[in-house]
Amino acid sequence: AKNELACSTSAACVSDSKSINNHVSLSLFLLSCSRRANLRLCLERLKSLVPLGKDANRHTTLSLLMKAREHIKRLEESDRRAQHTMDQLQRERRHLRRRLEQLGVERTRMDSTGSTQSDKSDSDQ
């Protein structure tokens, strides 16, 4: 009600410098309220994303931000390890494909020449 009164007062008396100052103050106050509400909303969202452990309701903004930073570092490390594993698997895959191609070429050569050393050793057994 006080804010509404200040707003209506400043709108009615625009020429009065005190009213203009009140209007500016009200605008700043409303912007500040909006920023604080947005910050609260962001902190609540952050709480839902960061594993806080027990006593989750008792965390300060600072402790929440510190836990979020630790969580981000753990996620980055996990991503780094996963990327390293992916790189290793891709190298292994390329190696195995080359090896498979080599074996296919060798088999083709063996099929075209007839019996091979491995065929002879199989018949000896």
TrEMBL record:
It comes from Notothenia coriiceps. It comes from the Eukaryota. Residues 23-75 form the BHLH domain. Keywords: DNA-binding, Nucleus, Transcription, Transcription regulation. One of its GO terms (molecular function) is RNA polymerase II cis-regulatory region sequence-specific DNA binding. SUPFAM superfamilies: HLH, helix-loop-helix DNA-binding domain. This is Max dimerization protein 1-like. Residues 75-125 are annotated as: Disordered. The keyword Transcription regulation applies. Residues 75-84, 99-110 have a biased composition (Basic and acidic residues). One of its GO terms (cellular component) is nucleus. The keyword Transcription regulation applies. InterPro entries: bHLH_dom, HLH_DNA-bd_sf. It is found in: Nucleus.
